[in-house]
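The methods section describes the discrete structure representation at length, but only in general terms. What matters is that the chain and its backbone geometry are given together, residue for residue. For illustration, here is how one protein appears when written out as sequence plus structure tokens:
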Amino acid sequence: MWFQILSLVTVAIVFVVRLVVALTDRPTRR
């Protein structure tokens, strides 16, 4: 169903965004 696809895409985008934000928020680790 479209709702499932949209949900999966949304979760994937949110996951990537949070990952990027985490990496940007703590560049001290690198």
